[in-house]
Specification:
The complex is a heterodimer of chains A (258) and B (258). Chain A has 258 residues and is mainly alpha-helical. In chain A, 53% of the residues lie in helices and 2% in strands. In chain A, helix 3 packs antiparallel against helix 4 and helix 4 crosses helix 10. Chain A is globular and about 60 Å long. The N and C termini of chain A lie far apart (51 Å). The chains are: A mainly alpha (258), B alpha+beta (258). Chains A and B meet through helix 1, helix 5, helix 9 and helix 10 of A and strand 4, strand 5, strand 7 and strand 11 of B.
């Protein structure tokens, strides 16, 4: 499969940033239609091709704002190792071609006439052009984020290995911000432990609250100890000790400080 | 430089850059770390662990070490361009631990001290052109974009047309770097000193590598080091500029003038 060179991403980002008024002539709802001024240079990656119907299947599977089914199709079809999955040249190319229609349907606000965007270039930059290979951006962009979300939460020891991934996908902030961008997410027992805690305590209906309370607490625990030293049960015990009473009495887990 | 890792309290700092316990070898398809702790005085009830992280591939693993030599090999497919490792002393169980004649209470897994902490950079040698993208913009001002893997300096189109010729010519290149590059690099370093977020950026990895190769410790960098560090990053452009114009001035005088 192809990918953009890094220089192409550098040029593309600057070009799009300067192109607010004419931008939607190139980024249409159906396809990316560049002209010769874009100077897009590609190279071959060592990623194996995916089947041609994948994107249409992903579009059909995206229902009720939940991307779990679409993400599962992607993760099971796109076989990547971690290094390939952190390649922004690969993701930016496929955001513009292979997965373009999925992204435009999922994140299509710039084509909605009722929502007037003052800076559509920022929106395009934030959804199509990946210029940063950090954990925070890999988990936050539409397609790379789907892939990494599965990679972090699949639990082969469970009867349904996607059981916790389904919870992860129930709240976009939990997935792409609170847990997904945390350093503890790199340690699988930590993220699996936290999701199991959510499941065991029936917190799935208020994931925003749970996420806002849990992620700073685990970060705090990591301030004085290497979290990779601990197994899943340690994380669950710590969370139970910290939040068990609040859950039992029906108190909110997260209260915004005054 | 403060990092989250140092919060909320300082661990016992046992680091000694002149006597490293880890030697790393970049093999063809693996990174090999050889750890020799035969000179280290092990402490009862304290584990010595090696923690390895690579943020771009969400990699985080921990190895328990013993007096015997140990080799850890990691496939490059698992790693991004920056690999951080630490050797930490960690409490094996809850209780008092004596170090240097002083007893302190610790829970299991608490970090007691840092024996070694280093960053290995597996990056392409792209030099200044890989670090910075200079691009024309229709806006009427110069701006720096630090959000990508590289730094973008946007300069107005008219200025860019002049600058483009300057940077291509060996005789005028030092002037170009000094006048356009230096303020940007200084801005980027000062921002990084004040904002932890930037430590994770790939451009900071390149800057760190250039500085480390020249004998700077990026952990101890402060604002007084910024002019000298900038000069290093820009390939000693100030000295070259001085040599070209006024050979009787030395670089310190020119930096003061700048």
């Amino acid at each position: 499969m192809k990918k953009f060179t890094i220089n192409t991403i550098k040029n593309l980002k600057v070009k799009v940033k300067d192109m607010n008024e004419t931008l939607l002539n190139y980024y249409t709802i159906e396809a990316f239609i560049p002209d010769h001024s874009f100077h897009l240079v590609t190279e071959e990656s060592d990623v194996l091709p995916i089947n041609n119907t994948l994107v249409e299947e992903m579009i059909a599977a995206f229902v009720d704002e939940n991307e779990f089914e679409a993400g599962k199709l992607l993760f099971e079809s796109l076989i990547l190792n971690p290094r390939q999955a952190s390649d922004i040249g690969f993701w930016t190319y496929h955001n513009h071609y292979t997965f373009y229609r999925y992204i435009s349907r999922r994140w299509g606000a710039i084509w909605n006439d009722e929502k007037k965007f003052e800076t559509p270039s920022t929106y395009v930059g934030n959804h199509w052009i990946q210029s940063n290979s950090s954990q925070g951006e890999l988990i936050d962009y539409p397609i790379s984020g789907l892939w990494w979300s599965f990679y972090l939460t699949v639990d082969e020891s469970r009867t349904d290995k996607y059981e916790l991934t389904k919870i992860f996908f129930k709240n976009n902030s939990l997935r792409t911000k609170y847990f997904g961008q945390a350093r503890f997410a790199r340690h699988k027992p930590a993220i699996i432990g936290a999701l199991e805690f959510i499941k065991d305590n029936n917190l799935e209906n208020d994931l925003e609250q749970a996420g806002r309370a849990i992620y700073p607490y685990i970060n705090l625990l990591g301030g004085i100890r290497p979290l990779a030293y601990f197994d899943k049960e340690w994380f669950k015990d710590k969370l139970n000790n910290r939040f068990g009473e609040q859950i039992a009495t029906g108190e909110k887990l997260f209260v915004r400080p005054n | 430089m403060k990092t989250n890792y140092d919060f909320p309290y300082q661990f016992l700092d046992l680091t000694n850059s002149g006597n490293l316990y880890v030697e790393y070898i970049a093999e063809v398809d693996k990174l090999s770390l050889e750890i020799d702790l035969s000179d280290f005085q092990f402490i009862e009830n304290v584990d010595v662990i090696l923690e390895i992280e690579s943020s771009q591939t969400f990699y985080r693993k921990l190895y328990t070490l013993a007096r015997e030599k140990k080799t850890v090999k990691i496939d490059y497919l698992e790693l991004g361009s920056k690999v951080e490792y630490s050797i930490l002393l960690v409490s094996k169980e809850e209780g008092n631990i004596e170090i240097n004649g002083q007893f302190d209470y610790h829970e299991k897994g608490d970090c007691i001290g840092v024996l070694e902490k280093e960053i290995i950079r597996i990056i392409d040698e792209e030099g200044f052109s890989g670090l910075i993208k200079i691009a024309p913009t229709i806006k009427d001002k110069i701006s720096y974009d630090l959000t990508s893997d590289w730094i973008t300096i946007e300069i107005p189109e008219v200025t860019y047309e002049k600058f483009y010729n300057w940077q291509k010519d060996d005789r005028t290149n030092p002037f170009a770097l000094a006048c356009i590059g230096a303020p940007c690099i200084q801005f980027a370093i000062i921002k990084t000193l004040k904002n932890e977020e930037y430590i994770e950026k790939k451009w900071w990895e390149s800057i760190s590598k250039l500085l480390t190769d020249s004998g700077y410790s990026v952990y101890d960098l402060d604002e007084d080091d910024v002019p000298g560090a900038t000069n290093i990053i820009l390939g000693n452009c100030f000295q070259e500029m001085v040599n070209a114009v006024t050979p009787e001035l030395d670089v310190e005088d020119t930096l003061l003038l700048a």
